[in-house]
# Entry
Amino acid sequence: LLIADIPPAALAQALTGPGIHLNTGAFTTHLRTDLRPLVDEMAQLYADYPLVEPATIDDFEIRISAPSLLRRHVRPQVVSWVGGEQLIEPLPMDQALPCLESALNIGVAYMDGSPLVVHSAVLERDGRALVMPAPSGSGKSTLCAALAWSGWRLLSDEMAVFCFETGRLLANPRPVSLKNQAVDVIRAREPRAYFSRFYLNTNKGDIAYMRAPTDAVQRASESAGPGLLVAPMFRRGATLSVREMDRVEAFRWLTDNAVNYASMLQHGFDTLADFVEGSRAYALTYSDLDEAIACIGRLHEGRSG
Amino acid sequence: MLSARWGQSDPMDMRWTVPVSFRPVMREWGAMTLVFHPLSGNTHFLDLVSAHLLDMLAVEPRPESELFAGVADLLELPNDALVAERVGELLARLDEFGLIEQVPAC
# Structure
């Protein structure tokens, strides 16, 4: 059963009442909300996602609601409870969807028995992962969105999720947040891309969400092995340049962008070290998306960038 | 100076060693070695000489004189005051990281 199969009124009723068990690949979330506008926005962005039976064990639980009756009507606000705890500050009601997306990220990183999470975009081709850990402002999400429509399968725009047992990257494809210009760029490149409305003044600026490609959602149970680590840096007018990193630098890129490495102890160290040993790593500076995509394709094939 | 931290003990009676409570987890990557400290949860990036010292101490406790000689051999340098000074600094740093400690000689 997919979200798209459920009539909007029934979906809203389920979310207000017992909740739904939303599967986003590696994780299942018990989700509840009584905010009808959020239900409608979610139904569009998560149309392809399967719901699982209530008997399934959820990885975490999220509730999105107004913090109080007053805050439904006077300067309306929205808050998220992850596992019953309110971990982020209330947001304007207009940002209910960004609030949900933040809660889904937090749920993965801080749930009981959470896997190792690195702030990174992750895609896959030929079974091998392309991991792009990068800080905000590096153009990571734009490049990730473009790659997701260029023969690479989206595993996640936000987080590399490493499985301790196998060392593989788990898929958790969810909507990709993009800023104004990036939306125009991707919309021009890919007519199939669906975008939400814009959310203004979020902690990432003015953003819209791009729905994850259907193929990525349908194949969300497939993990990916080590492959490439690329640290992207968009610089307007820059000539494409590629520099190979040594293992120490690649490891630092991962730990510097890790969300919960310190609490993972030796599991985290071994997992990231194994990934680095099984991958090649590059720093990529670019200004032209097509050049960057072609370059990453060459690196994936083992050629120089 | 290291001997000052030894208090009343004769430096000749002291050994450096890897604490028995843990074994560092190491990955050698070219000229650098990554060391994970299982108790602190910290990851350290060691150069060739520091990693060599840790390797030597993982085998058995050793007096400083043996460590000076081991490093001088590794670098093919005379075992002189310069080596002793540099090794002393590196031992102090490894000690600060909690990767090694001093114990009385048996």
In short: Residues 161 and 183 of chain A are 26 Å apart (CA to CA). The two ends of chain A are 43 Å apart (CA to CA). Chain A has ten helices and 16 strands. The first helix of chain A runs from residue 8 to 16.
